[in-house]
Amino acid sequence: MPKQPFTHKAKKQQPEQDRKPKRRTGKPAGTRNNVTPKKAEQLAKAPRDPRLGSKKAVPLVVEKSEAQPKAKYFSPAAELKSIEQDTRLDALMDRLDAGDKLSAEEQRYVDSKLARHQELCQLMGINPEAEQDDDDDLLDKFEKINLDQFKK
């Protein structure tokens, strides 16, 4: 009997009941790309906070507030110390010493702070000019020292 050429149909066809079940080892194909984490599913189901994602318009330019609250001090010494440590006042005073001109608002700020500083000094009995004179006197004394008298 001549052999029939091998074809796909030549195999025995078994009914589905007689076949062995396929072994399923490993994970199904494509799970790497379509797995959704459980936390993401839980977050999607969670009720959303209505405060998030407000539709209210946000102003891009900050408008100046006209009434700025003044700092309250418990003692004149604390207020005097804050004026002396004011960085804006120091910067503006340095600009004045350098000969720069200040704007009207900056000049008002400097004048008000200096006037308040003078009031507080009078209230506390401090004479700032006397302290500067003492420093100048010490410098003059140091410069006038004759070093020849210390040589042996």
Give me the secondary-structure topology.
Elements: H1 31-34, H2 38-45, H3 76-84, H4 87-98, H5 104-124, H6 128-144
Question: Mind describing the biggest β-sheet?
Answer: none
- Quaternary state of this entry equals single chain
Query: What is the general shape?
Result: elongated
Can you tell me the residue ranges where pLDDT is under 50 for at least 5 consecutive residues? none
Count of DSSP-assigned helices: 6
Number of strand elements: 0
Give me the strand/helix succession.
Answer: HHHHHH
Can you describe this structure?
Helix content is 47%, strand content 0%. The radius of gyration is 44 Å and the shape is elongated. The protein has 6 helices and no strands. By secondary structure, it is mainly alpha-helical.
Tags for this entry?
single chain, 152 residues, mainly alpha
How would you sum up this structure in a few lines?
By secondary structure, this protein is mainly α.
